[in-house]
DNA sequence: TAGCTCCTGTAACATAAGTTACAATCGGGT
DNA sequence: ACCCGATTGTAACTTATGTTACAGGAGCTA
């Protein structure tokens, strides 16, 4: 578990940060005016709260309960899965426009199956779970929910493909490309140890494979960082 | 690709089999009266068509388009994923009450990401995709759709856990237990070759591990079949 | 500068899984 | 009875990945 740098837990943060409705409304109308109609935006603005988290903040953890659903405004979130022995596995990144659909249910609160950690400073709007269903009569919302579900499904399928059909060298390279894309920089700042945690393997193995990838000319190794030379298509 | 025994493609079957509405209504009211209210049942009965497929029938394949969504009445369906090189991977089984939610979208037709094959004789009701959204105003239907999504998510997560955190011997044992449960028999009828295809490995490896499991007393090997001794919890 | 921790490189070995090759056996059909 | 294909068993080898151990460098702080 690499939570040494994880700074706050969402549950507490929500209680602390409260920003007035006007800001929520502004942000919503700026970012979602093409996706949601005016009425829906107003409704979301009424119940949603704005939050901004620094990088490496754990938003939710396995088994933790939540009564909110996040709507991503900016930044990026890393989604992880963990097994009984505490071994982690990276699943996918969430970016603007995404929501954490794992949670959809009719229950008033849900128990998280995943861990979510911000990769960079991230802004989001939290909506109480109870409204998700209520708004389903709104076609824009319905579309949004369906699209979110479908996206998460696709990402899970991709995670499965990666695990089932790719070797570690390919998985590592893919991960670095995605991370570079998320960070908007070819230089991925992280240690071999952190990569090993996300890919559920050991540091030595990562070091070995990184060296191979460097020899192939796919990247350049630096201390505490990796320069990715090839681009994502 | 193990389609040597796959008998028909759904696309054709749908055109061939047409059973009168009364049967659909009877089946629906018998199987779903606790889940859907009367109005909804009537609406489903109006547009749904009943179908019965023998075991080992491919219902849908990768890249294939469909304008229908199945509602499972009896039997069991195996869901598979395939990579570019034709290598397969078992994902999970669907049973009564399930639907193939991968497909939810607002588009009038969808392209399948998975392959679905009946494990035993299977009865289902096919509903045109266009109604899925229309019915969302009905709370029972909404609940059903959400539950389906959540179930599929859970199954995908389990598939990921299995791939990421378990060795082949555990995966194989787990697969056999699930299959025995689906077939309602401790004797799983299938060759080592078929197991190798579903677990994306080779026959020799499966034979080797089966022998290990037999030595551990977890199962008994027969020609063309495996008797599973331990039960699913 | 000394001491400390974190990060990286590397070797040597262990284990899991994939590959190739071949033999033996079963069962169905002619 | 015989043939033949499908199924299974097994050996020998390769490759991928995991494990343990240790060394050296970078950067920080006293």
Summary?
The structure is a homodimer of 233-residue chains. With 233 residues, the first copy, chain A, is an alpha+beta fold.
Description:
- The structure is a homodimer of 233-residue chains.
- In chain A, helix 6 packs across helix 8 (203-215).
- Chain A is elongated.
- Chain A is α+β, with helices and mostly antiparallel strands and 233 residues long.
- The longest helix of chain A has 27 residues, at 139-165.
- Chain A has 2 domains: 3-163, Jelly Rolls, CATH 2.60.120.10; 167-228, Orthogonal Bundle (Arc Repressor Mutant, subunit A), CATH 1.10.10.
- Chain A has a 4-stranded antiparallel sheet with strand order 2-8-5-6. In chain A, strands 1-9-4 form a 3-stranded antiparallel sheet. In chain A, strands 10-12-11 form a 3-stranded antiparallel sheet.
- Chain A contains 8 helices and 12 strands.
- The A-B interface holds A 81, 83, 85, 87, 89, 91, 101-102, 104-106, 113-114, 133, 136-137, 142-143, 146-147, 149-150, 152-154, 156-157, 159-161, 163-165, 200 and B 81, 83, 85, 87, 89, 91, 101-102, 104-106, 113-114, 133, 136-137, 142-143, 146-147, 149-150, 152-154, 156-157, 159-161, 163-165, 200.
- Chain A binds a DNA duplex (30 and 30 nucleotides) through helix 8.
């Amino acid at each position: 578990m690499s939570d040494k740098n994880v700074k706050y837990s969402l549950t507490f943060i929500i209680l602390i940060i409260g920003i007035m409705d006007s800001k929520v409304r502004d942000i919503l109308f700026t970012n979602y005016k093409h996706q949601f109609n005016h009425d829906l935006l107003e409704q979301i603005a009424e119940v949603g709260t704005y939050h901004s988290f620094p990088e490496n903040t754990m938003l939710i953890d396995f088994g933790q309960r939540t009564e909110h659903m996040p709507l991503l405004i900016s930044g990026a979130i890393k989604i992880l899965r963990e097994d009984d022995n505490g071994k982690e596995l990276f699943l996918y990144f969430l970016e603007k426009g995404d929501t954490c659909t794992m949670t959809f249910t009719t229950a008033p609160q849900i128990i998280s199956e995943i861990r979510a950690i911000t990769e960079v400073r991230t802004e989001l709007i939290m909506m109480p779970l109870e409204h998700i269903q209520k708004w389903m009569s709104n076609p824009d919302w319905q579309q949004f929910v369906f699209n979110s579900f479908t996206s998460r499904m696709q990402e899970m399928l991709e995670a499965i493909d990666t695990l089932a059909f790719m070797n570690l060298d390919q998985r590592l390279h893919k991960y670095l490309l995605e991370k570079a894309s998320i960070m908007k920089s070819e230089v991925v700042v992280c240690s071999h140890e952190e990569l090993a945690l996300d890919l559920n393997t050991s540091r030595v193995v990562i070091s070995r494979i990184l060296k191979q990838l460097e020899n192939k000319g796919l990247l350049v190794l630096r201390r505490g960082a990796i320069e990715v030379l090839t681009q994502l298509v």
